[in-house]
Automatic annotation (TrEMBL), chains A, B:
One of its GO terms (cellular component) is cytoplasm. One of its GO terms (molecular function) is ATP binding. Its EC number is 6.1.1.21. This is Histidine--tRNA ligase. Belongs to the class-II aminoacyl-tRNA synthetase family. The gene is hisS. It is found in: Cytoplasm. Its main location: cytoplasm. It catalyses: tRNA(His) + L-histidine + ATP = L-histidyl-tRNA(His) + AMP + diphosphate + H(+). It is an enzyme of class 6 (ligase). NCBIfam families: hisS. L-histidine binds at D85, L86, T87, R115, Q129, D133, R286, Y290, Y291. CDD domains: HisRS-like_core, HisRS_anticodon.
Length: 457, 457
């Protein structure tokens, strides 16, 4: 006998949690499609040679290699590896199919990715990423940078996770500012930002001590200016514009970043994103080196400890390893597995009602054909229905529906048959009522639509 | 520069084909949910020790093993392997979560599986399986065996793949019949059936020669009876019952199989499955040894060369490697990747219209806020809309929509603004008309619903 178990670091859910998770993925997908993004799926494995282009980062990502039985026996380096994100597969896809795609190419991709993380609570070796990207050929208008927050707003409003803020920054603005205080080297900028990131943990004074210390050797007034800069958070649309203004004149690259942020802010209004849902945050840089313009993070106002739930940005060139074409793009990613896990930990999402909306009970074998007929009518009306195929005690049937989270139990016994009605028990309200067999499906359909509209399902 | 490419044996699609494929998966999922099946997803990899229980078949399936960078460097046997079907993960899942599940447990699972097949046209190393199973604890009524064809009927009717037939048989009936002609050994029965399977290729006489020859040594009249038996195909519901009757008295196990088939046939009527969509076929055994009762195959009447598009059956015990509990079940599987590939080869599915339903064009930068507002209204009404964010020649915008398969192009220039109307071009009919800006979304919504109802989308 083998103990049934999975490897640590995967999220496997019981059905009611899976239903809740599936609804989250459905909301994300629906909103991605609403904004005109097209679906792409790529294989779970890529050729190792194609996946590992040695731009760094791969080793930290602990790639999983794949070998068939035959290849394993022969030895040698594995030919295949599991994707560790959706960006490299996108680059490969766009380069491979370049001549069959229309640009700007707008794709969404909702698939799992793999990282050989050490086993640790809240760390996943397999997790969903839900990405959108717009890829231009040669050039891509900064207007697309404003689309991303519009999509984020649509997704997170519908996910009902409470108030959230889309934090905006621009790498050019950041670069221009740092150059202005004499830190021209990109890596040095990144190191300073990493120190600044520790303010919450270490305190401002400790961080200041490090920056003026031997490692960085920055002047006091430079540290002052950096600290003031990275603490900028806008409080409204007008304030965001004012904060940009308040930076004063800067280098060409700073001016470029400022003008891009202004344009993005202006378009956000056009997209109908409420000003309470976005803010400038000059501390945001995003880890990846490859962002070059607008960058995004999204935080839940009431759950800051969760960190960013949706991040991304603008990059200069998607697929330089695979094609000579210049392919600038902008994109965002939602790590749905981690998000779901954290929302559940924080008590923001709970176990869903069942995807089964009605259970047709059975009290008498002779009534089975009636049960099947009733279920058929419900299904034809678009209601998900399960039929109790074996006679059980009534109390057991109710208990089953209750535990499974099924909203309605329908009964059709001798008494109901005589009057051609179906008894309906609403498991949530405990109401019982009767409906004519012919009208049953349409009435329950309206009932379920009303519950959905009221956000009760 | 690395050549962008994937490993052979995977199906990667361009967006319009991906949309068509996604619609197929959506139809399957929707119908699985209609019948009250609950979603389950399992990790792509299982612990090798758990996955490879040495019941045979694994080596032929050419398992893919998985190792992280660190494990690879250390050497040793891989701890993880990719699932090669959804049945073993289901067995592990049910055994692991046994005490948290309600039985009969009804689950659907739509995920990809992996087999190290040799590269060959139409053979896939990565493909979707779409499975449903009902698992009982200790026992499971044969009534559930009738649910499977009801679901198959619902799925394939909605997939619009032309007329199809669900072929039914029962392993007990088969076993009873073979025992009746003196072939009691299960493996020998399987070998005879495999020969019979070659009738189409080799001809009846060649097969007969083999069966009466040295390898099998069967008597002439036994071969006659076998050949007559396996050629039984019912032509109607009444004929199916008559064919069962015509078998005459048999052993206990034959009688059991006959009575199960009778009950399944009777219930199919209750489920509302038209009799043209099912038939007895006594030649069906299914490769896997583990089926013990009802077995199913589904064929497209006009495309027999495709073979079975949905198969499955009843099994005695799902998870004997993982638990002492007896878990009988019944299930079916659709190999969606292969099905889609074959339907496309046969010209039955074609490239879909885009998931984007409307393109809001742009003729003048000053009108961009109006474009965004129009798109926002469309999206609020549930219409998938893309906005042209940069001014292009009108002809180019129409050409883009045409190639992308976007149904409606909306224009709002100076002239339209003056009258507060939006110009609509239907790319399919080439009709052009104007709608008030306020009514636009609701009118297009109705239009799209009508197109859907007419099966045009």
């Amino acid at each position: 006998m083998i103990k049934p178990r999975t490897t640590p670091g995967v999220m496997e859910l019981l059905p009611r949690d899976q239903i809740a998770f599936q609804r989250m993925l459905d909301v994300i997908r629906r909103n991605y499609e609403r904004f005109g993004f097209l679906p792409v799926e790529t294989p779970v494995f890529e050729l190792s040679e194609v996946l590992l282009t040695k731009t760094g980062g791969e080793t930290e990502r602990q790639v999983y290699f794949v070998q068939s039985t035959g290849a394993l026996e022969q030895g040698g380096q594995p030919e295949l590896a599991l994707r560790f994100d959706l960006t490299v597969p996108l680059a490969r896809y766009v380069a491979e199919h370049e001549h069959d795609l229309a640009f700007p190419f707008r794709r969404y991709q909702i698939q799992r990715v793999y990282r050989g993380e050490r086993a640790q609570r809240g760390r996943f070796r397999e997790f969903y990423q839900c990405d959108i990207d717009v890829i231009g050929k040669d050039a891509l208008s900064v207007r697309h940078d404003a689309e991303m927050p519009a999509v984020i707003h649509a997704v997170f409003s519908e996910l009902e996770v409470g108030p959230f803020t889309i934090q905006l920054n621009n790498r050019k603005l950041l670069r221009g500012f740092f150059e202005g205080v004499g830190i021209a080297d990109g890596e040095r900028q990144a190191l300073v930002l990493r120190e600044i990131d520790k303010i919450d943990k270490r305190g401002a004074e400790a961080v200041r001590a490090t920056l003026v210390g031997a490692d960085f050797g920055l002047a006091d007034d430079v540290v002052d200016r950096i600290m003031a800069f990275v603490q900028v958070r806008s409080t409204s649309h007008a304030d965001a514009l004012a904060q940009l203004e308040a930076l004063g004149a800067g280098s060409e690259v700073l001016e470029q970043g400022r003008s891009e942020l202004r344009e993005v802010l202006e378009l956000l209004k056009g997209y109908g994103v409420p000003e309470k849902n976005y803010a400038l945050n000059f501390s945001i840089a995003r880890g990846l080196d490859y962002y070059t313009g607008t960058v995004y993070e999204t935080t839940l106002d009431e759950h800051p400890q969760i960190g960013s739930v949706c991040s991304g940005g603008r990059y200069e060139n998607l697929a330089s390893h695979y094609t000579k074409s210049k392919l600038p793009g902008v994109g965002i990613s939602i790590g749905a597995t981690r998000l779901f896990w954290q929302l559940r930990e924080a008590g923001i999402v709970s176990t869903a009602e069942s995807s089964v909306q009605a259970l047709v009970g059975l009290m008498d074998d002779a009534r089975l054909p009636d049960s099947l007929d009733i279920a058929r009518r419900l299904r034809a009306a678009g209601i998900n229905a399960e039929v109790q195929l074996e006679v059980k005690k009534l109390a057991k049937q109710f208990q089953y529906a209750d535990r499974a989270g099924i909203r309605f139990v329908l009964l059709y016994g001798e008494d109901e048959a005589a009057r051609n009605v179906v008894k309906v028990k609403d498991m949530a309200s405990q109401d019982q009522y009767e409906l004519g067999r012919e009208e049953l499906a349409s009435v329950l359909k309206v009932e379920l639509e009303q519950l959905r509209a009221m956000g009760k399902r």
